[in-house]
Structures are given as structure tokens and as C-alpha cells.
Amino acid sequence: MNGLSGKLPSEISECESLETLGLAQNQLVGSIPKELQKLQNLTNLILWQNSFSGELPPEIGNISSLELIALHQNSLIGDVPKELGRLPRLKRLYMYTNQLNGTIPPELGNCTNAIEIDLSENHLIGIIPKELGQISNLTLLHLFENNLQGHIPKELGNLRLLKNLDLSLNNLTGRIPLEFQNLKLMEDLQLFDNQLEGVIPPHLGAFRNLTILDISSNNLVD
Fold first, then answer.
1. DSSP count for the chain of H helices, then E strands
2. H helices present in 35-112, as ranges
3. Do 148 and 123 meet the contact criterion of CB atoms below 8 Å apart?
4. For the range 16-20, what are the long-range contacts, defined as Cβ-Cβ under 8 Å and sequence gap of 24 or more?
5. Integer angstrom CA distances of residue 44 from 24, 92, 115, 210
6. Strands 171-174 and 140-142
7. What's the CA gap between 92 and 154, in Å, rounded?
8. Domains located in the chain, CATH noted
9. Does the pTM exceed 0.90?
10. Closest CA relative to residue 185, chosen from 135, 138, 143, 151
11. Confidence at residue 1, expressed as pLDDT on a 0 to 100 scale
């Protein structure tokens, strides 16, 4: 951890050859400059554990070279910008432990090369977009501790490489999708503290790699 403080100057966008911008674990404040969109060679945006506030500029979606967005442990608000769906190379999106209070855009399903998405510990509302089921390379999806509603999309059963799924501590209703039987590589499945109902799918017992299963505090029956 360093002790850098103040705002992130927009002039840093003049470093047009920059491939990694790493300013994590500092005391930076204010908004993330939209001028960062000028960094067309940027692969890694690493700003986690600061005190950034405001909304993430949608212009970040213009940095088509981005593979890693690590903005967790800040004070960002608003939506997850739908413009992030324009990032074809994005592999990891970490925006957990912020104050995000908007929705998860269906456009995020266009990030078909993504491996890990973590939007947990925010105040996100609305539904889980079925389009997330298009991200066929996804191994980790964390959306826990938000205010998400509606059913768990059956399309998540298309994520055959998924190993870690945590949707706990939301307001999800309906049944655990039967399509989850396709998730043969699942190691950690946590759906606790929702309002799920119906029977516990018997195929959950067939996940040979499963080490953590927590579906407590729901309305499930045997």
C-alpha cells in the first residue's frame, strides 16, 4: 500500500502507449476520468482499494484493448455501464464492494471472452440478465449481497466451464433451474439467503467436484 492521495489527473491519458495503469491501494478520490478512453493500448486498469466515487464513465467501454478491469473496494455508484459490453477482450471484471445501485446490463453478455465477473457487495437492483449465459468461458460469477430480484435465469446452465457461482444474499425467487445439471465442473455453489422455492434438484448431488454447497435460508423442500 502506498500513500498517494488526491484525484487521478486526466492528463495521464496523454501517456498513449500505456498498457497497464496500476494505482491500487492508495487514497485517491474523486471520479475516474473519462479521458482514459484515449489509452487505446491499455490492457489492465487496476484502481482497486481507493476512494473513487461517482459513476464509472461509459467511455471506458471505448478502450477495446482492455482485458482486466479491477475497480473493487471503492465508492462507485450507479449502473454497471452497458458500454462495457463493447470490450471483446475483457477477461476479468471486478467491481465488488462498491456502492453500485443500478442494474446489470444485458450487454455484458457480449463479453464472451470473460473468465471472471464479480459484482458482489453492492446495491444492484433488477434481474440477473439471461444474456450472461452467453459468456461461455466464464468460470466465476459472483453477484452476492445485492438487491437482485426475479428468477435465476435458466441460461446460466449454458456456462459449462463455471466452477464458482455465488448468488447468495439477494431477493431471488423461483426454483433452482434444472439446467444447472449441465454445470459439471461446479466446485462452489452458494445460493443461500434468497426466497427460492421448490424441491432441491437431485442432480446437485452428482457434481463430483463440488466442495461447497450452501442453499440454506430459502423456502426449499425435500
1. 0, 17
2. none
3. no
4. 16/40, 16/41, 17/41, 18/42, 19/43, 19/44, 20/44, 20/46
5. 12, 10, 15, 32
6. unpaired
7. 23
8. 5-221 (3.80.10.10)
9. yes
10. 138
11. 56
What are the pLDDT digits (tens) for 205-215? Answer: 889 999 999 99
Contact yes or no for 171/144 (Cβ under 8 A): no
- Type of residue numbered 76: L
Picking from 163, 113, 105, the residue whose alpha carbon sits closest to that of residue 130 is 105
Report d(CA 164, CA 78) in Å as an integer. 26
Whole-angstrom CA distances from 86 to 3, 58, 113, 125, 193 are: 34, 10, 12, 22, 33
Q: Name the 3-class secondary structure at 60.
A: helix
What pLDDT band is residue 147 in, cutting at 50, 70 and 90? very high
Q: Any residues with CB less than 8 A from the CB of 129 and at least 6 apart, and which?
A: 104, 105, 106, 108, 109, 153
Three cell numbers, residue 190: 452458494
pLDDT of residue 32 exceeding 70, the answer is yes
